[in-house]
Automatic annotation (TrEMBL):
Protein's name according to its UniProt entry: ABC transporter permease
GO biological process, one term: transmembrane transport
Organism of derivation: Paenibacillus albiflavus
Transmembrane segments: 27-44, 82-106, 132-164, 208-233, 240-262
Topology class, membrane: Multi-pass membrane protein
Cellular localization per UniProt: Cell membrane
Amino acid sequence: MEESNLDQSKHLHQVFMAGLRAERRKVIFVRFLILLLMIGLWEAAGRLKWIDVLLFSYPSKIAVLLWSKIMDGSIFPHIGMTVYETIIGFVLGTVIGTVFAMLIWWSPFLSKVVDPYIVVLNALPKVALGPLFIVGLGAGIMAIVATTLSITVIITTLVVYGAFKEVDANLIKVIRVFGGNKQQIFRKVIFPASIPAIVSSLKVNVGLAWVGVIVGEFLVSKMGLGYLIIYGFQVFNFTLVLGALIIIALVATIMYQIVAYIEQKVIKTR
């Protein structure tokens, strides 16, 4: 009887997993179908002159331009520079923001002191700080990274500190009952419980890091995808502008999927 119930449970589990896989395949298929329809409509609109080709171009024209730049290798230094700056801003923003969240959690006095400043900095338009970074740090990669950090650090701090505060108070009481100090509370309860929030903040920081880098390249860079966008506008080559935007979307998606994969592994491990 027990073996029969076990076999039935295994069968139900297999049916359930098969249903999940089928649904996942349907979702992927519909995503690609929507993408193909959008590309096809855009291509038709461009070739039939339903849109201004000078401004909006069309997919095949963009593909020809990108392929020519791939063949002559001129696009790779721009991609490499932007990805390099983005990774630096992404990693430093996450680390610095997490460390700062730890500090203000550790010291309630410090938390009360810096709270209004964090609110103001979060509300401040970060693009407005770009010229200040350029003047202070020079027209180079340091100003671009600083612009990125001005966005990622504050958001990471708010997300991670909020996760620290939302940890179940009963867990903290258990550590205190057994004589645990603040360091042990943080190491045994606060930080482990907040790991999912920290990993989730990485997903947010991927997009924010790209925003910061592209804005910085708009202002100062002579190399990178942001520079290509500005250059394309200056010479009225909007096909180049759209091509650079497509590359940004592709690379940002790859980075996001990597972080999402890490998040799944962390959650599965926990």
